[in-house]
Amino acid sequence: MTAARSGLRSMSAVALIGMLIGATAACGTEDARDGSTWEEPSSYAYTLKSTEGERSLLGTFRVTVRDGKVAEAVGLDESGRRVAKQLPGEVPTIGELLEELEQARHDRADTAEAKYASDGHPLRISLDRDKNALDDEALYVISAYEPSGR
Known about the structure:
The protein has 150 residues and is of the alpha+beta class.
């Protein structure tokens, strides 16, 4: 009976270790889109709120994308109006935000997380390339996403 209990405990310990490793690995890719069927449409509109860090792209914008490129970016707050006027090429498509997320993951950023809507488009992207560096964070909140009719 002792040998059977010992074998059962060993199997339980192995199973527990496997679950812990799996849970730990999942933490780095929380809410990852693996297997998502969402594809960026060529034309859509969305609202972007870009905050945190010392970057040129700070503010809130209403973005219109046509043929896969930003056709119009309207600043909705003081910072957004300044960026839209002075640096209109800095306002990204959702696809470009996802590329930034993937690059951060590839570069092993300390934080590279996203939350997604039920259709698969991102709602929030949080980046911090180095937790010990000041002002390298980026937070993108995507709302009012409206794909254009095809």
